[in-house]
Amino acid sequence: xNALHAHLENKTHVIWDWNGTLLSDIxxxxxxxxxxxxxxxxxxxTVGSYKKVFGFxxxxxxxxxxxxxxxxxxxxxxxxxxxxxxEDLITAxxxxxxxxxxxxxxxxSGKTQSLLSASEHGMLLESVRRFQVEDLFDHVFGIHDKxxxxxxxxxxxxxxxxxxxxxQTVLVGDTDHDLEVADHLGIDVILVEHGHQCPxxxxxxxxxxxxxx
Length: 213
Description:
This protein is an alpha/beta fold. It has helices at residues 2-8, 26-39, 47-53, 58-65, 71-87, 89-92, 99-108, 121-130, 152-162, 176-185, 199-203, and strands at residues 13-16, 23-24, 94-95, 112-120, 139-143, 169-173, 188-192, 209-210.
């Protein structure tokens, strides 16, 4: 918590990313993608190679892996990914060790906490309930479809709903898209080194890349 504490000292609202940042789901995501790759007779990937190529919008990432990303094929691919990913998410994954304790400490400090995710909103709500952390968040915002395109618009809606002062708000995430979102919202951002993109990629674009848990 020490490295994170310094970045939160003058903040009143902490916006957390979910997948990769709080939820330890990288290996599960790779397993799910490899299932899709195998079905299409495409080369499989490792966790290491995944962290080097994963990004937003995910359509470009899928294209890099060799998938057909024409509109209809991409929508079908997203449906299959979500079906496979969520069918055993609760048994396959959990929050990162220390994540719940960190969330509780931030809540006890009196700060507002929100979730902003590229996951489909209904699936995000269900995941948060199943992992029994819904009481730790004041707001939970996922996107309205399964394409994981961008969190920018939902971020704007979240800021308006929370009535947050941008100068007192910080986003904690694990990808270059979180940096992009924070730039659009005019807020600070902390990137964690344990998520869906490798620390080397993140440190090349941002100075605050830290070990949180």
